[in-house]
Amino acid sequence: MGCFFSRRRKPAQGGQLPPQQPAGAGQDAATGEQKAPQYSWDLRAKIDPKEYTFSGLKNEAVGRLPGKVAGQQFVIQDCENCQIYIFDHSATITIDDCVNCQIFLGPIKGSVFFRDCKDCKCVVACQQFRTRDCRKLEVFLCCATQPIIESSTGMKFGCFQYYYPELALQFKDAGLSIFNNTWSNIHDFTPVSGENNWGLLPETAAVQDYVPLPSSEELKAVRVSTDATKSIIPITRGRRQKNSDESCLAVFFAGDYTTANARKLIDEMTSKGFQLVQTKEVLMKAEDAHRVFQQSASEFIPLLEKGPVVALEFNGDGAVEQCRSTVNEVFSGTKVFVSESKASASQDVDNFYNFADMQMGM
């Protein structure tokens, strides 16, 4: 390997090195005048806040295409009867004083905060979700932490379901896992005795009936689908009533095909009529494995060092037998934890999700 030597600067008279000037400093060749120095921070692209704001709009359809927000903060305020689409990932988004709007918000690395909004329908993916002083919001939600409502009434929630080709990478850029979605686990910060400020949307609720697909030529270029089978986020039952007293836990360990394998099992099981209750992606340690996998822990502990596990809970009569059979047929070369029996399965589910909720501070 060769060495690189920099040429030493010769000291000026008196033995002192002349002071180094920032790039761009010195005399202007044409005028002889001293030029102002240019520092590196002057050369950065200037961000125009107007590019990251929708304000004071009425009866308009507006949006930002993939790549146009690129992780910046965004502000939506004082809009009425508008359709708003943010087809990109962002840092945080605040929505203030909006009325009767339909809003799609792509993955948000931090928080989304709705304040003083009413009669809005939304599709949102975020790390944190919060509302204050809102009325009648209907939200298809993917949220990594427990959603919080405060001084808000008539709130309805459903599971995020949406697809366009750039969305999976935007989730990664925002640091969100498609398997961590607590959409139905709402915390009401200001409950009222005898009243319920929130509920769940009907299971049959179709996203496009709430937030229609964009109609402008510019935004139609984004190839959106609201077909549940194409959704980037697996559709879960969340806290809805389970149809059966039999559930089954399946856990995939980190590897090149973890996400694809988990999706494949979801497709196989749901196509046979079983329901996906919840999913989770989380890091585990050896002591966690002993608590969750019990006597079979030693088989799985070496796999934990590779990264987070992905867990799936299925529900339905015969779920355990069907899940074990599918894993044996489809994933014969892959180590997967699957509940052994109906009797042990409910304990498996409780053990895993209690651990996962503690890990994630739920």
From TrEMBL:
Residues 1-36 are annotated as: Disordered. A lipid is attached at residue 3 (S-palmitoyl cysteine). It is found in: Cell membrane. Residues 37-191 form the C-CAP/cofactor C-like domain. InterPro entries: C-CAP_CF_C-like, CAP/MinC_C, CAP_C_sf, CARP_motif, NDK-like_dom_sf, Tubulin-bd_cofactor_C_dom, XRP2. Residues 1-11 have a biased composition (Basic residues). A lipid is attached at residue 2 (N-myristoyl glycine). This is Protein XRP2. The lineage of its organism: Eukaryota, Metazoa, Chordata, Craniata, Vertebrata.
